[in-house]
UniProtKB/TrEMBL annotation:
Residues 413-436 are annotated as: Disordered. The keyword Repressor does not apply. One of its GO terms (cellular component) is plasma membrane. It is found in: Cell membrane. Keywords: Cell membrane, Membrane, Transmembrane, Transmembrane helix. It comes from the Bacteria. InterPro entries: Poly_Biosynth_Transport. It comes from Micromonospora costi. PANTHER family: O-ANTIGEN TRANSPORTER-RELATED, PST FAMILY PREDICTED COLANIC ACID TRANSPORTER. This is Polysaccharide biosynthesis protein. It is a multi-pass membrane protein. Its main location: membrane. The chain crosses the membrane at residues 12-31, 43-64, 85-108, 120-139, 248-269, 298-321, 336-359, 366-386, 392-409. The keyword Cell membrane applies.
């Protein structure tokens, strides 16, 4: 029976899933230790740092990973080495990082005063964390494209294991500075990259440079969708600090609550690696029944995940965030209900977005996320309490994105057809690395 189940998942899914699991656990341990070690103001600063890093880092560098993986996978079928792709991808990631660094440092004083309680060192930790993510996602693109999934999962696992070990040492040593807890986001990914660099270097090889057009062709729309999706799911904590700078308790409590209610997203991340290839394969062959069947099955799975997570979060959330993260007692069962509904809608959006990508409708996916972010902004401006504005923004934004995607899928072709099939490279893209 176990062997039969293993045959149902694509090669590498279990290795990547194990790495994702450890990395997900690390997020909870990281925030739990920090929550018990830092005061409210410092934990709020760490919460804002965390949200910015994963909004910008995943939003900008995950598409770079996906495009590197796509091109490396295509070249692999032709017996071509990944070296030229890695060179272009690294240059692209470095260029994007340089622009982001210039913007962050130009706003150094504003960021320090407005978001980090005057601590300028946290701004430098932000820059270092983004640099670490740039390096990690670039190398993961090569590992994914070459289908070196055990190494891919190992990088995720080492990253997660180091986060757990380092924050445990910080907690035992009685460290009370948010800078050190933030610096873990710099050290752990870089060490994980170094540990998994040998297979990348062995496979690099030479060859003619890859045309920039091959890498940049779909990157703009993919980056827009990725970045906007991270804004929907992460911007709430930043908004809480911007809307009420003196209310340090709410920002920290919201991050703890969001990490708790988004447990289903970590489970979905391990399924996502096989969802897009499956949908894309059905689209490529014009198999309407298989496409819609897989889409319905995926929606059913995430709905079940979301409902189970929602039940636990609403019932136990207020107690758990206090027990696990030592979060301030400012959120009630109603707050967790809003966040749980938002997470369920976000899961629907993630599945429907994969369906749009499988049909090569990148523009439609980007449009849906744009409309959703606009709805989030409008809801956040409502004259309500800070926490409710943030919760309502996340909920309305996620529901609008999912609804827009459903309408776009319904308003397009009745199903996939060979006339509008995605490229072979899309089908062969390996793993989506949107993990924290």
């Amino acid at each position: 029976m176990i062997r039969r189940l293993l045959n149902l998942v694509p090669p590498g899914t279990l290795a990547v899933g194990a790495g994702l699991g450890l990395l997900g656990l690390a997020s909870y341990v990281h925030l739990a230790v920090a929550g018990h070690s830092l005061n409210e103001a410092d934990y709020s600063s760490l919460s804002v740092l965390w949200s910015i890093v994963f909004t910008l880092g995943i939003g900008v560098f995950m598409p770079v990973e996906q495009e590197i993986a796509r091109i490396v996978a295509a070249r692999r079928t032709q017996g071509l080495p990944p070296g030229p792709v890695l060179a272009r991808g690294a240059a692209l990631a470095a260029g994007v990082l340089a622009v982001m660094t210039v913007v962050v440092l130009a706003a150094y004083r504003v960021l320090a005063d407005r978001l980090f309680d005057g601590d300028g060192t946290m701004v430098w930790v932000l820059v270092g964390s983004l640099a670490a993510m740039a390096v990690a996602y670039t190398t993961r693109g090569v590992l994914s494209g070459l289908q070196l999934f055990p190494w891919y999962g190992t990088q995720l696992g080492i990253d997660g294991g180091l986060r757990i070990g380092i924050v445990a040492l910080l907690g035992l040593a009685g460290v009370t500075s948010p800078v050190w807890y933030g610096a873990v986001l710099v050290a752990a990914p870089l060490i994980a990259v170094l540990a998994t660099l040998p297979p990348v270097l062995r496979a690099v090889g030479g060859g003619l440079p890859v045309a920039w057009s091959a890498l940049l062709r779909g990157l703009g729309l993919l980056t827009a969708s990725s970045l906007l999706s991270q804004v929907v799911v992460n911007v709430g904590v930043i908004n809480a600090r911007v809307l009420a700078p003196s209310d340090v308790a709410t920002a920290g409590a919201l991050l703890s609550a969001l990490v708790l209610v988004r447990i289903p997203l970590f489970v979905f991340a391990s399924l996502q690696a096989s969802l897009l290839p499956g949908l894309a394969t059905s689209a490529a062959t014009g198999d309407h029944a298989a496409f819609h069947g897989l889409l319905r099955k995926a929606l059913g799975v995430v709905t079940a995940l979301g409902l189970v997570g929602a039940f636990g979060a609403v019932l136990l959330g207020p107690w758990l965030v206090g027990a696990l993260f030592d979060a301030p007692d400012v959120l009630g069962h109603g707050d967790f209900a809003w966040l749980a509904v938002a997470t369920l809608a976000y899961l629907w959006a993630m599945v429907l977005g994969q369906a749009l990508l499988a049909l090569d409708r990148h523009r439609a996916q980007a449009l849906a996320w744009t409309v959703g972010v606009a709805a989030l902004v409008a809801a956040t401006l409502a004259p309500l309490s800070v926490a409710l504005r943030v919760e309502l923004g996340y909920t309305v934004g996620s529901v609008v994105v999912a609804g827009t995607m459903a309408l776009l899928l319904r308003g397009g072709a009745a199903g996939p057809s060979p006339a509008t099939t995605p490229s072979r490279e899309t089908v062969e893209t390996g793993v989506s690395g949107g993990v924290r």
